[in-house]
Fold this sequence. Notes:
heterodimer, A: mainly alpha, Cytochrome C Oxidase, Chain A, two-stranded antiparallel sheet, 21 helices, 1% strand, B: alpha+beta, Immunoglobulin-like, 7-stranded mixed β-sheet, binds protoporphyrin IX containing FE, binds copper (II) ion
Amino acid sequence: xxxxxxxxxxxxxxxxxxxxxxxxxxxxxxxxxxxxxxxxxxxxxxxxxxxxxxxxxxxxxxxxxxxxxxxxxxxxxxxxxxxxxxxxxxxxxxxxxxxxxxxxxxxxxxxxxxxxxxxxxxxxxxxxxxxxxxxxxxxxxxxxxxxxxxxxxxxxxxxxxxxxxxxxxxxxxxxxxxxxxxxxxxxxxxxxxxxxxxxxxxxxxxxxxxxxxxxxxxxxxxxxxxxxxxxxxxxxxxxxxxxxxxxxxxxxxxxxxxxxxxxxxxxxxxxxxxxxxxxxxxxxxxxxxxxxxxxxxxxxxxxxxxxxxxxxxxxxxxxxxxxxxxxxxxxxxxxxxxxxxxxxxxxxxxxxxxxxxxxxxxxxxxxxxxxxxxxxxxxxxxxxxxxxxxxxxxxxxxxxxxxxxxxxxxxxxxxxxxxxxxxxxxxxxxxxxxxxxxxxxxxxxxxxxxxxxxxxxxxxxxxxxxxxxxxxxxxxxxxxxxxxxxxxxxxxxxxxxxxxxxxxxxxxxxxxxxxxxxxxxxxxxxxxxxxxxxxxxxxxxxxxxxxxxxxxxxxxxxxxxxxxxxxxxxxxxxxxxxxxxxxxxxxxxxxxxxxxxxxxxxxxxxxxxxxxxxxxxxxxxxxxxxxxxxxxxxxxxxxxxxxxxxxxxxxxxxxxxxxxxxxxxxxxxxxxxxxxxxxxxxxxxxxxxxxxxxxxxxxxx
Amino acid sequence: xxxxxxxxxxxxxxxxxxxxxxxxxxxxxxxxxxxxxxxxxxxxxxxxxxxxxxxxxxxxxxxxxxxxxxxxxxxxxxxxxxxxxxxxxxxxxxxxxxxxxxxxxxxxxxxxxxxxxxxxxxxxxxxxxxxxxxxxxxxxxxxxxxxxxxxxxxxxxxxxxxxxxxxxxxxxxxxxxxxxxxxxxxxxxxxxxxxxxxxxxxxxxxxxxxxxxxxxxxxxxxxxxxxxxxxxxxxxxxxxxxxxxxxxxxxxxxxxxxxxxxxxxxxxxxxxxxxxxxxxxxxxxxxxxxxxxxxxxxxxxxxxxxxxxxxx
Lengths: 701, 312
Ligand code: HEM
Ligand SMILES: [Cu+2]
């Protein structure tokens, strides 16, 4: 693609689509490539048709895309993450299918489902998507939805900035999606280590797609971190002292602080690589004084805190559900707070364990190896605390508890392999092998993915007013647990047998049985994905039977369960006065928790705006233009962003006022409804009798 | 503790004794060590698994027990909904992990120090220089005057010291049955020290992804009895000499079989053995990246006229 750059179209031409590849050369690899592009194209066409037919465009724009409401923004983040999760899991499956057919010899060209070049794009997009466009939007979305409600706030500190963050994340995701259809993606893995990804060894647009997706979405995450931190510091309801905050708020605070300190490192390493590639700098090149070790160093200064950014919100979710579904107070609140905070701090001191084998002295490795092990202490304490929470409880085996159980049993195995890898002497052997791949999937899937899915299941009724089907929820959870075991346990074995990660082929026939087991696991994961989608669909169809207008389907103790389901835009008719930790639970204990406020006042909410949407559009255009060297568009969209910010800054923006009468009307109706609904005991939790009004006499924790 | 260790050993034994793994082919795993370094890595692995079981087994056993005993549908035992703290328990929850990590950390220190790849395993190690190229390894025996492609031959009993660099992107050299891996980077050198205690054949490989041919960047490692080693050194090679000409061909992005074809040998995935055309080749290739040598030895960029290359 090094031909002439057109002044209008940059490096774009008709040869960049997978269809062209297919026309030139028909084999399983180009068919898979063109198939994936077709899924994207037909998916987009079907989506547009559906929205047009259902006349959804107007509502989509008015109610969702222009909304600065953190709850809506949270839901949009999660929707984005689920779409990307589908692509990520399918890619994982294709890779498993490929490796199951990839036994070859040293003398013959690589065999298997896809070509080596295609395989390397697959692990690169899969890793990038899963980390940045599945895990991150899941947790940021969940925090957006839950955090203000738990703090007793109506919104984030900076609602429009929040919208911009979502827009930037979506723009990054869109860049990765479009790379399916237009051009190639990079092949350097989710870490994109130079010099391999430098311009000498990776000419073309692939690495640039990664760079711009990361730079743009990374900016969004940094802003999100600031927004969360300020919200927690400034927007807590009166009486919500730090030590009264639910654990999920604490882990959100950890995440906020970590985002603020960790994301810039990624932005810096990516920007430096971009300067190398676009402007002939030599930060990480082989010659002229460049040094790739700096890239590894800066990248992992972000990378390690990142994995705890991913896991901590899940820890928050587990703290909430272990207590709620055991009908018991959370054990060791203070311990859990201290443990979370120490994880956040220590996680900034261990990054070197990602390159023990780069040739530094044993002393350096010892220091970072021990630091890595130390982080296991607070993590272990948290797990024991949740067990103590369930001890002498009355545990309902709901979907979130199935996920929690899967997490307990599998995460400790991931912890064990983590401790193993923390030993430099052993890491020399299994680094860069599928043992490592098994390890990080072993902490990310049971940790992050199960945690987030459990959280979605738990808070779904609050967002949409009806519960998700428990039957299908549990089926999905079992499939994800089984799928994980079959897919990744064999990778531990293969890694110890010496199989390097990212291998497009292998020559040892003894690997084959393990590959088949892993491929079967991949099938289970696809079933889990289908089952997850089905859970949403079937629950939507049964939404009247599953409706919980009372708003408290699980007999919870934190503030968000005091509002109706679905939660109104203003969340609280009146900002609550917090008296205790688990304030809603205390109110239940005291007798009549559903007392309405005496007086209603007008509520001021941020007005809807297209600001985030426009900035997202400009950011996407900027990224796409930079990838394809369409300079005029790059300059235009680059200038458009500060321009739009300045314009908005000069306008007088009037907030939206919700009149007291409207709030009063809705709130009174809710309270009457609660009074008229029959309360449900915990035994009835999964039945139609659960209308979101729990039996107060049962509330003890 | 003892039980934990036995359990861990069983677990690993299942893997190690997997019949498939034990049968023919090149050894590719540190679970069947051929020398003291891999041996110590293996036993350290068992040790770590054993010690860590102390904190893991309570979860693996406790969680199913708690779920069974305290399940809502058929609970046994007390219900203490307001219980949220116990000082004694707290000491145990923090104390046990702290102690376990203290023990693990001491062992970590010990084994990391002992297995420092920069420290020779004895006096007068055999010196080998390794240059990572795209999708093959070039080994230079400066004292013996030999260079090989994708074959490393070492005598049993004598320590070996490999000095590594690359003439392309970063790579990582691993010979699992003998020693761990270390990165190799252009313009820089790293070292691996090990020795073989028994004869045998192992597979070595690059573990750091570097393009389309990555999956075939493997090499054969043969640990020979000293006499056999001596006759291998005497044995001469394929009649080729490592000089700028042959090096330019090797430096192309190609896998072993194709490189053989380019050199006029038959296209099998067999190692190439050459005589050394001159001294100091390794040093010159490292120096290239510090501005020395000018355009010699192929310069510092991607090789020109790349025929077999990756990515379009
Ligand atoms: C659900 C089913 C999943 C399957 C079947 C799967 C499969 C795979 C496979 C086959 C690889 C390549 C391994 C190799 O390099 O040899 C891989 C890499 C990776 N996966 Fe997954 N995965 C799954 C889920 C996830 C999730 C949930 C995450 C994170 C949130 C994730 C993150 C990654 C990352 C970061 C890499 C490394 C990419 C690289 O090499 O740069 N995966 N996965
Ligand atoms: Cu890390």
